[in-house]
Amino acid sequence: MTDKKTSEKRINAKEKILLSAEKLFAQNGYESTSVNAIIEHAGVSKGAFYHHFTTKDDLISAIIEFEHQKNPTLPTEHYLPQTPEERFASEISRWFQALDNSKHLLVWMVPLLSHPVMKTKIQEMEPERSKVMAYLEHLLSEIHVTNPKTEAVILYHFFAGLKFELSMNLHLNLLELEQIILNKYLKNQAS
Q: H/E/C letters for each residue in 99-125?
């Protein structure tokens, strides 16, 4: 029982550090946020920080992984809606929701794209990028979109560009954009 409590405290400390870092990075920027500020905001000891992270740069990878677990790009559930149109709409809605949930990250992450840790993390995620493209192509072919491979590339890069736009304009109307995408790809399905 003691091992479980100690493990939970460590997990809680790590999560507190990640959430505090996210908040402070969004408020002050990555470069302007010190490890001491993160420790103080999280209410953890310096030892707890260094137990989980060697440097502040380690937080970049950890935050990306932490957020990716909360908002995965590929579906993790076995249930997907029955019709191809429902599946497509559900996935597009899920991606827009994930974007909305991660807006606070984009403000400080996008400017860090040239940071060595960020570059490495993006390279590590390359195999997932290919899976996402294949998944998009599959969803689009299921709803009988002409040229699903090309449309998958366009849609993938639309979402990538939307991340840049959100980093500069957090008040972007995502619901309106979601409806535009759904109308574009499902407009012929309703007739």
A: HHHCHHHHHHHHHHCCCHHHHHHHHHC
